[in-house]
From TrEMBL:
Official protein name in the record: DUF2285 domain-containing protein
UniProt superkingdom: Bacteria
Length: 79
């Protein structure tokens, strides 16, 4: 888990919520990612896709790493 991930947990959750609601990707990019699809559709789409992919990864793999890090930190704090 990167510092970028930690700073964007809320963004990832918002993207996943929007996907569940079948929200239009352009609106999600504008509201959640603060990107203007009208100025550069291809780049905005890639940004939205990459952030959504990372959000999905967090739900399948990343959360385990967060838990593993927390367990390791707790173990080190005890010693």
């Amino acid at each position: 888990i990167t510092i970028y991930d930690e700073e964007h947990f809320v963004t990832y959750l918002r993207l996943l919520d929007a996907q569940t609601d079948n929200a239009d990707w352009t609106e999600v990019a504008r509201i959640v990612l603060h990107r203007d699809p009208a100025s550069d559709v291809a780049r905005t789409r890639r940004c939205w896709e990459s952030h959504l992919a990372r959000a999905r990864w967090m739900t399948k793999v990343g959360y385990r790493r967060i838990l593993e890090q927390a367990v390791e930190e707790a173990r080190l704090d005890r010693h």
